[in-house]
């Protein structure tokens, strides 16, 4: 059954886009525009490429593109204008902005970040580095000013008024959707390369996944990308190697009621031994991306 579900995600997405282009071309420009206005037409490969090539994207985001492969990710999602999306743990807003450009002015993207940690709460469990964990920060020099996620998203909107459809959102992971959308209000939820971190943050992931399930419309999709861990490691290396076992993540998400409908292979690196944070010899991490649907 698993082999029937595991499709070449990007090939299916691009084939769908090609068929869409052909249909729109034969129907004429007017009918194509009407389809786009309805929010039902998946963006074509060419339209996605134009979004990624937008000259007003930041240099920092462009530098991340080689590793993040945004055109393939957006095609894999099946992004379309008019969607209402939630980007979990939006951080600086790399994915949030791409989604906002793709859903257009008739869509909306909520960039979620958790509330600041209560200073009076017990300290988090310390993490013991393993392998070649992230290198320590330099002891000297002037530290860079780091914006909070809401500040970073607001800065993006201020720099580009066309991104006014980004809505910064501060809510806990266990209840991430705004109240008015918490019941069947979302078309899409993304969680990019941070599901593993919830193991180190003490997040109630079962509650988070149930909340995401409840917030999505029937047919809505939950797309998760992360760094692959070795079989049997579960989420135990979340704070050290920043990895998670793919099968473990899938079991947790499916326990909330989701069905896996697609898996993309364009982020995979089978040569990564998956035993260190930064592979040796230096190379990209083995990353996976999964698409789940709410029936």
Keywords:
7 strands, 7-stranded mixed sheet, 295 residues
Quick rundown:
This protein is an alpha/beta fold. It contains 11 helices and 7 strands.
Instruction: Figure out the total of helices.
Output: 11
Helix content: 25-40%
> What separation lies between the terminal Cα atoms?
17 Å
Structural class of the secondary elements?
alpha/beta
The ordered H/E elements are: HHHHHHEHEHEEHHEHEE
* Sheet with the most strands: spatial strand order: 3-2-1-4-5-7-6
Mean pLDDT: 84
Find the count of extended strands (DSSP E, 2+ residues): 7
Describe the structure.
The protein has helices at 2-5, 9-27, 29-38, 45-52, 59-68, 70-77, 94-103, 149-159, 198-201, 205-215, 246-254, and strands at 84-88, 108-113, 166-170, 186-192, 216-227, 259-264, 287-293. With 295 residues, it is α/β, with parallel strands linked by helices. The chain has a seven-stranded mixed sheet. Helix 2 (9-27) packs across helix 6 and helix 4 crosses helix 6. The radius of gyration is 19 Å and the shape is globular.
């Amino acid at each position: 059954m698993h082999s029937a579900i595991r499709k070449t995600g990007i090939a299916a997405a691009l084939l769908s886009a090609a068929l869409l282009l052909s249909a729109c071309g034969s129907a004429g420009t007017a009918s194509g525009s009407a389809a786009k206005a309805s929010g039902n037409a998946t963006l074509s490969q060419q339209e996605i490429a134009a979004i990624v090539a937008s000259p007003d994207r930041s240099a920092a985001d462009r530098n991340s593109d080689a590793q993040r492969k945004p055109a393939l990710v957006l095609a894999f999602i099946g992004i379309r204008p008019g969607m209402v999306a939630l980007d979990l743990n939006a951080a600086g807003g790399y994915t949030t902005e791409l989604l906002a450009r793709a859903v257009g002015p008739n869509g909306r993207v909520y960039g979620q970040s958790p509330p600041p940690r209560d200073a009076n709460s017990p300290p988090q469990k310390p993490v013991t580095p393993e392998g070649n964990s992230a290198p320590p920060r330099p002891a000297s020099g002037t530290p860079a000013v780091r914006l909070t996620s809401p500040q970073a998203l607001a800065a993006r909107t201020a720099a580009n008024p066309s991104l006014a459809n980004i809505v910064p959102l501060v809510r806990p992971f266990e209840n991430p959707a705004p109240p008015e959308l918490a019941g069947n209000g979302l078309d899409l939820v993304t969680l990019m390369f941070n599901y593993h971190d919830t193991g180190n943050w003490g997040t109630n992931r079962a509650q988070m996944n149930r909340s995401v399930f409840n917030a999505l419309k029937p047919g809505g999709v939950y797309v998760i990308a992360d760094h692959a861990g070795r079989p049997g490691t579960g989420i135990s290396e979340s704070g050290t190697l920043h990895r998670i076992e793919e099968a473990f993540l899938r079991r947790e998400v499916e326990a909330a009621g989701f069905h896996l409908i697609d898996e993309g292979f364009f982020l995979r690196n089978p040569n990564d031994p998956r035993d260190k944070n930064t592979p040796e010899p230096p190379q990209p991490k083995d990353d996976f991306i999964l698409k789940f649907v709410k029936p």
